[in-house]
Amino acid sequence: MLKKLQIEKLGIFPLLLIFIFIGFSWVYAEAEKKLDYPTVEYQPIKRDPFHSPLDILDKEVMPEPVETEITLPQMSLQGWTWGYEPRAIINNQVVQEGDKISGAEVLEIRKEGVILIYQGKVFTIRPKK
């Protein structure tokens, strides 16, 4: 009797799973049919994808950059210390890294000299020998 009941339960359980699976599949399929996807219109453009869009620009329209010679204003390095708190004496003024003197910014003070940036160009000043 017990085995017969177990066999009946085993036979019903897979059928129940199959019906549940079919039901969910049918509900999902119906929901997918009701979705309204937007239409997308695509207009292909005939162009070579290997050419840069910048090639279209007329090269004569863009003037060539004029390179000007940038020279550092007259600066005299009288002395400097490097290490923990580097300092330098330039044109009788004591400066440290980050200070500006005569329009030039002190980038770094090294053993070799003082590195300055002036109008985007890097200069190194050393003491006169």
Topology record:
Elements: H1 2-34, E1 77-81, E2 87-90, E3 93-95, E4 100-101, E5 104-109, E6 114-118, E7 121-125
Antiparallel strand pairs: 1-2, 2-3, 4-5, 5-6, 6-7
Q: SSE string, helix = H, strand = E? A: HEEEEEEE
H/I helix tally: 1
Largest sheet: 4 strands, antiparallel
**Broad structural category:** alpha+beta
- Biggest sheet: strands side by side, in what order? 4-5-6-7
User: Poorly predicted ranges (pLDDT <50, ≥5 residues)?
Assistant: none
- Percent strand: 15-25%
How many beta strands in the DSSP annotation? 7
Principal-axes geometry comes out as elongated
- N-to-C span: 115 Å
Bin the helical content: 25-40%
- Whole-number mean pLDDT: 80
What does this structure look like?
This protein has 129 residues and is an alpha+beta fold. The protein has a domain at 77-125. Helix content is 26%, strand content 23%. It has one helix at 2-34; strands at 77-81, 87-90, 93-95, 100-101, 104-109, 114-118, 121-125. Strands 4-5-6-7 form a four-stranded antiparallel β-sheet, with no helix packed on it. The longest helix is centred in the N-terminal third of the chain and has 33 residues, at 2-34.
